[in-house]
Amino acid sequence: MSEGHEINRQIAIWREILVKEKNSWVMFEQGTCLILLEPEEDLRAQAIEIMKMWGPVVPGTSEGDFSVDVWEDLPGWVVYYQHPDMANYVSPKEFGEESEDKVWNDMIIGLIGRNKRNEDAQSLKIVHVEDKRTE
Fold first, then answer.
1. Does residue 40 contact residue 46 with C-beta atoms inside 8 Å?
2. Mind listing the pLDDT tens digit for each residue in 25-82?
3. What's the confidence (pLDDT) of residue 100?
4. Can you say whether the dihedral through the CA atoms of 69, 70, 71, 74 is positive or negative?
5. CA-based torsion, 91, 92, 97, 100: positive or negative
6. Residue 47: CB partners within 8 Å, gap ≥ 6?
7. Which neighbouring-strand residues pair with 87?
8. CA-based R_g, the chain, Å
């Protein structure tokens, strides 16, 4: 799958997840989604500042914490973090083989999502902006 196709697939997934969301949002290269509840003039600059502050993972601190939710309408999971408006989607293809142990599964899924967030915090590359202010 080409990089462009994968980015378009991720955008479609976030649109599905955020279908009722009235707020603007930004997606980074590895799929980290950041909902902007109080959008500023430059959504990209705002998202980068938030990602710089809240994106880097620091294991053993609250910056390393995550929670995992099953998404009912799509196969896969959404990983949430200390910043309540930042999340990653993890598809079943990324997760691989499920075991019977939900705690173990959630740990692996969360680590996959958290790794994407950390990569996005390093690169700070935005691949999509959904500006709801004009709708």
1. yes
2. 999 999 999 999 999 999 999 999 999 999 999 877 778 889 999 877 788 899 999 9
3. 73
4. positive
5. positive
6. 26, 28, 34, 36, 126, 129
7. 33, 80
8. 14
5 torsion bin: left (phi>0), alpha (psi -120 to 50), beta (else): alpha
99 burial level (CB within 10 Å; 0-12, 13-18, 19+):
exposed
- Residue whose entry in the numeric block shows the structure tokens 């294991």: 59
Is 68 exposed, middle or buried (CB count within 10 Å of its CB: 0-12, 13-18, 19+)? buried
Rounded Cα–Cα distance for residues 66 and 68 (Å): 7
pTM: 0.87
Quote the CA–CA distance of 32 and 116 in Å, as a whole number: 7
Residue 78, strand partner residues: 69, 89
Q: For residue 55, how many C-alpha atoms fall within 13 Å in the half-sphere facing its CB?
A: 24
